[in-house]
Amino acid sequence: MSGKRGFEELIAEGASVPVQGWDFSWLRGRASEERPPWGYARLVADRMARADAALDVDTGGGEVLAEVPRPPRVLLATEAWPPNVEVARRNLRAVGATVLQVAEGGGLPVADAALDLVVSRHPVHTPWDEIARVLRPGGTFLSQQIRGGTMRELSEAMLGPLPPPQRQLPGQAVAAAEAAGLTVLDLREATLRTVFHDVAAVVYFLRKVVWTVPGFTVERYRPQLARLHDRIEADGPFVAHARRFLIEAVRPA
């Protein structure tokens, strides 16, 4: 498949795939991303096994939480995007989690000092004051976050040159955690090679990971997608880099 016909078929394919939840299995064979070295799902499973009451903030479709082998006695999850809420409820039934639909940027519907663990993978916004409020003394917050500048090469392929990132930086997260009264125990960063083998994978990714190119639509970015398709056809897979950091903090006893 090549040329203009190939481009039109590929972007139509990438535009037609459902993007609910946080499952990227459709990209298998079309794109790949290195995993962070710390193994977030394993860390979550370890902390959950030792917790009595826990919360997953911005659970997405509940994909990480659903794999916890020993869930705590009380397990809650919050999600703001309505299409994800029902996906999460289905996925988390087996681990006995209660999924709470919340407003984007709002508070956590949990009583003060009710939890000994809060986790969050790739939160849109980290409500540090709320996390500190709902944690018991000695309770832990563990989060894998998307660092500013992630997938910059792909963003610039659509948007042109961008200034250095000003938000979602590890140092800012540490300062916000400490301002909320938490003590940071661990901070790690990773840069992860991400490879796209065709423009359909790019379209799917940009529809799903909406902060990469805010307001992305196929029609709006058709010229840039066509150039990227031609580049992949001529030079091989398009390579970008995801940036992540892990932060773990505790509410002092």
TrEMBL record:
Residues 55-142 form the Methyltransferase type domain. GO terms for molecular function: S-adenosylmethionine-dependent methyltransferase activity. It comes from the Bacteria. GO terms for biological process: methylation. The keyword Methyltransferase applies. Keywords: Methyltransferase, Transferase. The keyword Ion transport does not apply. This is Methyltransferase type 11. It comes from Micromonospora haikouensis. The lineage of its organism: Bacteria, Bacillati, Actinomycetota, Actinomycetes, Micromonosporales.
